[in-house]
Amino acid sequence: MKHLAITIFVLGLSAVLFGLYHGASFSYGEDARMMDWDHDGPYVFQQGNTLSVEYIRGNHHQGFYTDKQLFSADSAVAAYCYFPLDSTRFGFPILPGTKKPAHTYTAASKIFALSDIESSFRAFRDLLLNNGVIDQELRWTFGTGHLVLAGDFIDRDFSATQVLWLIYKLEQEAAKQGGQVHYILGNHELKNMQGNYESTSPKYFHVSAILGKQQQALYDTNAVLGKWMASKNAVEMINGILFTHGGIHPDIAQRGLSLEDINKITAQHYYIPFYPQAGKSNAQLVTSTKTGVSWYRGYFKDNPNQRDIDRILNHFKATHIVVGHTLQSSIRRLYNGKVIGIDVKHPKDYNKNFPAKTSEGLLIEGNKFYRCSDSGSKVEI
Asked: Which of 29, 342, 355, 367 has the most CB within a 10 Å radius?
C-alpha cells in the first residue's frame, strides 16, 4: 500500500511538472469585482442615421438597467469607458464612419507589437504604459511609432469592452501624432463576429440580455465596434516585416496571392464561419481553420523547412514574419531569426496564476529586435 501511494504521488508530481513545463498554470484568488458591471460599456449601435449609446447600470443584487442616449450618427459623440478593478476611467470620441487601413507601410520610426491579450485590460494597459507607448492618463506617447496588435484581444476574460475601446481611442491619438495603430484580426475576433462564443466570458451573454439583444449583436455590422473590427486587415507589412495572427501557409505564396488578395478574401468571410468544403479554392486556403492566416500554427507544429519560410518572405519581398496565436514561453525567433512568435501568457485581470504570468511585447528599432517585459526592461533577441 505504501509503495502504491508513493507511485501515485510520483506520477502526480510528474504530471504537474510536465504540465508546467509545457505552459500549464493554475488559477486562484478570483476578485469579486469581475461581477461589477455598473457603468460597463459603452455598447453602441447604429440604426439608420441614429446612434444608440448604452451603459450598463445597477448590480446583481438589485438588478440591472441601461442608461441609453440617442445621437446623430454623422457627428462625434463623447463617451467614456470604466474598468472596475482599479476604477480606471478614460474618455474618447465615437467618430462617424470607418476607414479601411492600408496593407503596406514604410518609414515607421519604432514598432511595438503584441498579441493574444484575450480581454485582459490591466495587462494590456500596463505593458503599453511601462514601455512608453502610453502615459498614466492612457494617452498616446509613442509619437510616430507604430503599435501592432496581432489579434485575439477579446474572449476568455471579463474586459473585452475596455480593451477594444482603448484600442479605438489610441488609434485616433496615434494618427494625430503621425503614428499608427494596426489592429490585425485573430481567430477569436472572427469567432465572435461569426457567432462562436465557446471561449467568450459568460459576462457578455448576460450583458446582451440586459441590453435586450442576442449576443451576436455585440459585433455585427450594426454595432460600432463590429463595423470597426470588420474594417481591419488580417495581414499587414511594415518596413518589410509581415504581421499576422496565425501565419502565412507556404501554399499561399506558391499560389501567388498578394497581401491585397489575402485581406480581400478574409474580409469577405469575416461573418461567414468556415467549414471544409470540396475543392481547394483560394478562399478555403486563406480562411481555413488549419491553413488560414488567422488560424495557421504550422511554423511551430508542422516544422516547415527554411526554404518554405524563405519562399514566403521572397514572395512578399519581406524580411521577417511576426505571428501570435501559438503560445510561446517567451517571445522568440526561429528559422534563422526570420519568424518571431510573440504569443505569451499575459496575466488575467481578476485572478492570479501559478506560476505567475508576465506580459511581453516585441520592440523593433531598425534592424534590432527586443523582447520587452511588462516592467519596461528590454533584451535584444
From this structure: 342
